[in-house]
Amino acid sequence: MEWADRRLSLEEPEIDFAQAASIDPNVTRYLRQSLGVFGGAYYSQMVEVGLFVEGDHGIQRASNGLGVATAKAFREAIGEEVEAILIGAFNPPR
Description:
The chain has a domain at 1-32. The protein is 53% helix and 6% strand. It has 4 helices and 2 strands. It has helices spanning 2-9, 17-20, 36-48, 66-90; strands spanning 52-54, 60-62. Strands 1-2 form a two-stranded antiparallel sheet. A hairpin with a 5-residue loop joins strand 1 (52-54) and strand 2 (60-62).
């Protein structure tokens, strides 16, 4: 809400949500949680399958290599055509 209120007060013709979802530390994100809504909703399930582990300090961190292997398996499963559709949906032309 705070992020949205600040952006609306600027009266911009367009609000760039992609920029605000960035992992760039110099960008003010609209979600405070680094894993976003997806991570908030599915963090415990991702821990169960080993994609994330809880460090000694209590902060979640990605497990070594398992996320990349999972992404590669997903990429192979969906095929090149669906991959192109997904990439297009996440990167619409401007």
